[in-house]
Amino acid sequence: xxxxFSSKQNICICFLVLIVFFQSYAILNLYSRxxxxxxxxxxxxxxxxxxxxxxxxxxxDVKNLENRIYSVEFDTIYK
Length: 79
Prior knowledge:
Helices cover 91% and strands 0% of the residues. It has 79 residues and is mainly α. It starts with 6 loop residues before the first helix and ends with a helix.
């Protein structure tokens, strides 16, 4: 019976198969991490939008308070 590959070739083939396996595992791991990062960035974007809404509400509250102060000052000066 004739061997298809020599023992050195068999060892090389085994190492190549292992390398391919670990590289594919690493790539799949990177894809899962990218998925996690995209969910984190989506969450961060929604938090930023919520903060922007809160800032807008606070700015409008400040304007309302300023208008009240001006109206009280006007009332106290001209009454």
